[in-house]
Amino acid sequence: LHDADDLFDDFNTQELRRQVMTTDHKKTKKVRIFFSSSNQLLFSFKMVGKIKELGKRIEALNVDKTIFNFTNRTPEQRVFKQRETHSFVREEEVIGREEEKRELLELLFDTNINVKEKVSIISIIGVGGLGKTTLAQHVYNDKEVQQHFELKKWVCVSDDFDVKGIATKIIESNNNVEMDKVQLELREKFEGKRYLLVLDDIWNEDGDLWL
């Protein structure tokens, strides 16, 4: 079951990558995507092999079910607590990410950004467990980043992409405040400043909401 979930995650990530890379010209200007290097052809071959192997295992399970007279059971409902990420990371926990960190820093410090757009958006995309949060933490706490940006903010989004909720987290305000006031406070907090805002653990694939 877990292997099947992992397989679906791989396909979903690859599909998300395809959608983002083929998005309209306007969005391509605004959002820059960071992927670890991967080969499309190699991905296809790997997926075919995984599907065949998974199919064989499912067939074997069906045979065992018949032989041993297994019965279907409804699994118990479990309540899972959502993960809450933060910006802190111990340097000793970050191993072998220097090249990816350097590439991200180059994107952050890129001086060729269209000034008219004012905001540069970089997305780190990949399947769960690849260390995307750790990489973002590694960059967020870099000394050059601390000196370059006047203001930094880390917000854990998780499953529920609530624009107002995210905004109130950014300004550290009460969620009962009206949206107009939230937008005003956001503008006052960030306007005229060079800032770095990290939205971590985003599962929503609607690029319009990111922008």
Automatic annotation (TrEMBL):
Keywords: Plant defense. One of its GO terms (biological process) is defense response. Pfam families: NB-ARC. The keyword Flavoprotein does not apply. InterPro entries: NB-ARC (IPR002182), P-loop_NTPase (IPR027417). The keyword Zinc-finger does not apply. One of its GO terms (molecular function) is ADP binding. Residues 116-206 form the NB-ARC domain. This is NBS-containing resistance-like protein. It comes from Trifolium pratense (Red clover).
